[in-house]
User: Which sequence fits this backbone?
């Protein structure tokens, strides 16, 4: 299992990371696509897991994560958009997930689930949908490694960034600063060269990018263009 450490957060001499989302890759050539973004300078590989219940789409299961794990050194950033995430933590951990992110909306027992992910040996992420306030996470922020702010309604790639979600990034950054916490802030949905600077300025650390990386023919250039917008 690939562990995330401070070093990998600081790759490229910056604490800001680009995580291409596999959802926009060519599913007929997944291995080739993963190797290509790795060589193009990606920091993490974001893997969107959808179950057709929590979100209206079906995507990737643990078998695919297990198949991709040996072919890449990139940390596998598994974003579980599934109902009853408790049932899947162990399978994704065994498959090689580095980070397991679960939605606060998908469980009645977020605290227990956080412990379950940690005990499975993975970094712990929690996520909130666009309509969910940061305050639902207030009791768990000291326990997590990552907070994922959804800037689109989860389910599909290529949607428009919802501007009102930006204030949640600054709110989280402020809470982190005031309380001396260490979680990383990640944004997911509609990230592009046009908005990445504003998101970064708000305090975001990790930028999931689906269509703005895999949707471009030249992935290296696409990642460079995004990185240019980071401070
Ligand atoms: C949406 C997924 C995202 C998606 C982002 O439900 O969680 O990770 O792939 O895609 P873009 O960057 O195209 O909005
Ligand atoms: Zn995602």
Assistant:
């Amino acid at each position: 299992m690939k562990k995330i450490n401070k070093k990998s957060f600081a790759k490229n001499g910056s604490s800001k990371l680009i995580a291409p989302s596999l959802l926009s890759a060519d599913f007929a050539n997944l291995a080739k696509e993963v190797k290509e973004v790795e060589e193009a300078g990606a920091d993490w590989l974001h893997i969107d897991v959808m179950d057709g219940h929590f979100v209206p789409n079906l995507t990737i299961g643990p078998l695919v994560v297990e198949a991709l794990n040996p072919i890449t050194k990139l940390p596998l950033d598994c974003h579980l958009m599934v109902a009853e995430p408790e049932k899947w933590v162990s399978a994704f951990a065994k498959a090689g997930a580095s980070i397991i992110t679960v939605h606060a909306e998908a469980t009645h027992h977020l605290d227990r689930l956080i412990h379950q992910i940690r005990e499975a040996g993975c970094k712990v992420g929690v996520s909130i949908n666009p309509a969910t306030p940061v305050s639902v996470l207030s009791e768990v922020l000291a326990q997590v490694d990552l907070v994922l702010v959804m800037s689109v309604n989860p389910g599909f790639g290529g949607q428009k960034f919802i501007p009102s979600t930006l204030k949640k990034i600054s709110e989280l950054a402020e809470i982190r600063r005031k309380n001396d916490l260490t979680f990383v802030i990640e944004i997911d949905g509609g990230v592009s060269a046009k908005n990445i600077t504003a998101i970064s300025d708000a305090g975001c650390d990790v930028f999931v990018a689906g269509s703005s990386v895999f949707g471009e023919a030249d992935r290296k250039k696409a990642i460079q263009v995004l990185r240019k917008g980071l401070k």
